[in-house]
Design goal:
By secondary structure, this protein is of the alpha+beta class. Helix content is 30%, strand content 39%. The strands form two sheets. It has a four-stranded antiparallel β-sheet, covered by helices on one side. A four-stranded antiparallel β-sheet has the order 2-7-4-5. It binds calcium ion (2 copies).
């Protein structure tokens, strides 16, 4: 009985430890009403801001972005080729300008310079240009993995010590009984 309750205690402590992991995830979604229509050579830009999601400067470890595209394709008359240029950040050699066919969602990881920008001010500029064809930009989702400083570390350690202490106590009692 005692061992059983100790086991559940250890499991509880383990759960607390994993809940106190150092990584966090911030998701910032920008939607553009019923979709922003882009005709040939038109541009559309927006800025993600993760400060209002409780972002702490310098804690972004990695980030990815998903842009949802939708073709304006008519039912009977398929239009021609579609190309979009995606620019992430203002001057960003690593992320560069990416050419994509804007008929489905585009997904990409942010490069170091965009990550540095996020860490510096919590914002990220994104711009889409219709290089060819016409299509909709429906939404943009920025996901940032953060290494938030864990203020509950001392608490976790004492909980673990408490758990280990109880475990030791239980083992001692078991020895005495045997
Ligand atoms: Ca935001
Ligand atoms: Ca089209």
């Amino acid at each position: 009985m005692l061992i059983k309750s100790l086991k559940s205690l250890v499991v509880t402590v383990a759960c607390l430890l994993s809940a106190n992991s150092f990584a966090g995830l911030i998701t910032d979604v920008e939607t553009f009403g019923s979709g922003q229509k882009l005709n040939a050579l038109q541009q559309f830009s927006w800025t993600h801001n993760i400060l209002d999601q409780g972002f702490t400067f310098g804690t972004a470890e990695s980030a990815s972005i998903k842009i949802a595209f939708r073709d304006d394709e008519k039912k009977f008359f398929k239009d021609g080729f579609e190309f979009a240029t995606i620019q992430i950040g203002f001057v960003d050699l690593q992320d560069g300008s990416l050419l994509t066919i804007p008929t489905a969602s585009w997904f990409g990881d942010l490069g170091l310079s965009s990550l540095a920008k996020l860490n510096a001010d919590g914002t990220l500029f994104v711009q889409v240009t219709s290089t060819l064809g016409d299509f909709f930009v429906d939404s943009s989702t920025l996901s940032v993995v953060t290494s938030d400083v864990d203020v509950s570390v001392p608490e976790t350690s004492s909980l673990m010590l408490f758990g280990l202490g109880l475990l030791g106590l239980g083992l001692m009692r078991r020895k005495v009984r045997a």
